[in-house]
Amino acid sequence: MSSRRIDHYLRALVSEDRFDFYAAVRDFADAEVAPHLLGWERDHVLIPDEVIAKMAELGLFGLPVPESFGGQGGDHLDLVLMGLALGYHSQCAAITPGAAVSLGIKPLLLCGNEAQKAAHLPDLAAGKRMFVFGLSEPGRGSDAANPQVTATRDGADWIIRGEKCWSTNAHWASHVVVHAMTDPEAPNGKRSTCFIVPMDAAGVHYQEMAGKRVWEQSSTGSIVFDSVRVGAADVLGEVGGGFKVMVTTLNGGRLFIAGLALASLAFALDRCCRYVQEREQFDDLPIGRFQRVQDVILDMDIALEQNLTWLMHCCDLYNADRLDREQAAKVKIASSRQASELLGAAMEICGGVAGLDEFGLIRHHNDLFVTRVGEGSNLALKSQCCRPLLGEIKNILQ
Ligand SMILES: Cc1cc2nc3c(=O)[nH]c(=O)nc-3n(C[C@H](O)[C@H](O)[C@H](O)COP(=O)(O)OP(=O)(O)OC[C@H]3O[C@@H](n4cnc5c(N)ncnc54)[C@H](O)[C@@H]3O)c2cc1C
Fold it and tell me: 195: domain range?
């Protein structure tokens, strides 16, 4: 019987079958990720290919893909449960299949045509192919509706020029879904189109982004498009519907990111509970007897139960196609913010040892930064979430 606090909550929140799936991925992470994590970190290497291959064998890359295309026929809750199970040890281990599915496969599932699905889904589900999400650019982050990457018509083809960055999984990618400006004169939100571009197409240049000190075992690439030619069959969704493809994808992606934040919080809670019972100070008694230490422990426990319950509810709404954009954003904002704040407090109640990599908290502390900024910066998302409450308020500086 697992002593993890998160398992106690999940048992009450999901069906037995779902819990069994979560437990299988948890056991995989205990055996194949946890023992090697410190070595990968100290050697500054990405998640090894053989671990990714084992994830593929478990079917993790095909979770929400219909069985008719070789997938597991699951749904978004399965994906989030996988993130909770892998992310407990390492957000990087979780985001590798997580982004491959929630940012790679999902746009195709949600917006692709039958020919595109038939051409790609079986290999994507088997982990033999990987799509990456090309939304962010050096000059376009939060203002993603207006990409500087362009696609211009050349007869029946399109020519793509510009640069994408921050593309998770670029190192393993077979294709990138590129969000490109196609009609700057069209109304906002209808100016762009998405294209499926093979990474080995002439004019595509990838390089791993240097100097990244968060999500260190996850690949993050910059991809340059030097007059890359693609055909009409490579358009994903409608011409002019590129931003819709991206935004629809991000709704589900934000639930996955919320799950990663809670996985880190769950790890920190268990780690602290153990440590404050072992560590003795003053009269050789455990530091867990101090009420200020207990305060932090209980705040973590409350935040975990509260946000996990909310997240499971959001997954159900998503699966029923009833989750709106603000709900997806809010659960990410709350989970990542609270987990980040509490990780700082968690480290403080453990003292100096918390600054050592082998203690396990510093990696979660650092990686939580990505959950606040990735898939929409929390502060930018707050502006969006306020709109249904306050309507459009003109910025007095404009
Ligand atoms: C490790 C990692 C992996 C990533 N993976 C991917 C990926 O796979 N694919 C992809 O396309 N992108 C990816 N991203 C990019 C991520 O989505 C962007 O970092 C994010 O959208 C924010 O964009 P930005 O960093 O350019 O910040 P900017 O847009 O420059 O914003 C900077 C800050 O300004 C403030 N701000 C901006 N706009 C507003 C606003 N409207 N209201 C209030 N405040 C605002 C916020 O504080 C914000 O954090 C990844 C990022 C990281 C760090």
Answer: 131-243
